[in-house]
Design a protein that fits this description.
Number of domains: 1
CATH class: Alpha Beta
Keywords: Hydrolase, Metal-binding, tRNA processing, Zinc
Helix content: 40-55%
Subunit structure: Homodimer.
Radius of gyration: 19 Å
Distance between the termini: 71 Å
Order of helices and strands: HEEHHEHEEH
Catalytic activity: adenosine(34) in tRNA + H2O + H(+) = inosine(34) in tRNA + NH4(+)
InterPro entries: APOBEC/CMP_deaminase_Zn-bd, CMP_dCMP_dom, Cytidine_deaminase-like, tRNA_aden_deaminase
Number of strands: 5
Enzyme class: hydrolase
């Protein structure tokens, strides 16, 4: 196999993304947007894990990546995390990418693209801006279908629930469309 034929991701990468998907499932169960992240040290051990907690924490910065970075920084007793890898189920936003750059994360791997707020190429390319004193290696698409389906299912369920509530509110007696008035 030629060097250019080397697969982009190996079994350890897939296992790390599956751990991030497990975190995303916890977010889903908590009613949060299902995004999960894990941080691996240079030896491949998980030193941080997190899922979206913005609603639970009443904190707009409690994205999965930030939660995982905080755990990793505490585990390493340092805010700088050189050489670590962060796996996240959704392309990071500008805030999260900025935190990863400040932490000197060596590698970021994401699952699904985020065409609305993605900062790793979809909307912005924060990770590779030439004027920054640090760039982070970023690749995407690992288990993208699974990561994307979890998000689509969450929002499909949320829209369905909102529609049912709207229809119930529209009923004259407030009893809903399937109930006798």
């Amino acid at each position: 196999m030629a060097e250019t034929d080397t697969p982009l991701y190996g079994p350890a990468d897939e296992a790390a993304m599956r751990a991030a998907l497990d975190q995303a499932a916890l977010a889903y169960a908590a009613g949060e947007v299902p995004v999960g992240a894990v941080v691996l040290d240079v030896d491949g051990r998980v030193i941080g894990a997190g899922f979206n907690r913005t609603i639970t924490d009443h904190d707009p910065s409690s994205h999965a990546e930030i939660v995982a970075l905080r755990q990793a920084a505490a585990a390493m007793n340092n805010y700088r995390l050189p050489g670590v890898s962060l796996f996240v189920t959704l392309e990071p936003c500008a805030m999260c990418m900025g935190a990863m750059l400040h932490a000197r994360v060596g590698r970021v791997v994401y699952g699904a693209l985020d065409p609305k707020t993605g900062a790793c190429g979809s909307v912005l390319s924060v990770h590779s801006h030439p004027q920054l004193n640090h760039q982070t290696r970023v690749t995407g698409g690992l288990l993208a279908a699974e990561c994307g389906e979890l998000l689509r299912g969450f929002f499909r369920e949320r829209r369905s629930r909102a529609k049912a509530l709207s229809e119930a509110d529209a009923a004259p007696c407030g009893c809903g469309p399937d109930q006798p008035a």
